[in-house]
Fold this sequence. Notes:
The protein is α+β, with helices and mostly antiparallel strands. It has helices at 5-9, 18-30, 37-44, 60-66, 90-94, 99-104; strands at 71-78, 112-124, 129-134, 137-142, 146-150.
Amino acid sequence: EEFNEEDFEEIPSDGISLPLIARTINELLAQDGEDSLAFSIAKLHEISVTTPEWDNVLRGKLMFETYKGFDVLVEHWEKPKKLKKKKNSKATKENVNDDSEEEKDIAPPEPKLIVTEGKLAGRDYEKEVTMISVKGRVVKIKNDKIEGVRLPTAKREKGAK
């Protein structure tokens, strides 16, 4: 049972690495050589290692590379757009009172959690941005503003149970 550092690189926070499990199963089946029953089973059949409750959230470089071009939902924080202040005319400047001081005390608007749908174009770790294509235009979202990138839930076909 030899493990490389790469094997532990993509282990999610829940501690389960499906690629590591699949590789280990294949190594164990091939352990007795090409003439063994286990090797013959592995050669003729496919073993699928899945998790029943995967949350569809993309984690790690490998997943972002694998799902490039797929539809994704990006949950990210965005500040509401600032409203332009109306310029005061000369008449209103003369009548300025303490109301202008109250306007200065107004807190900036809170950032909102927004979900943007598009196709995953990539993730740049040097520039710290995630790029998604929305209606043919690439939108760059700073990674520190992203709450999560996930695949949309699978659509069911008519007749599927």
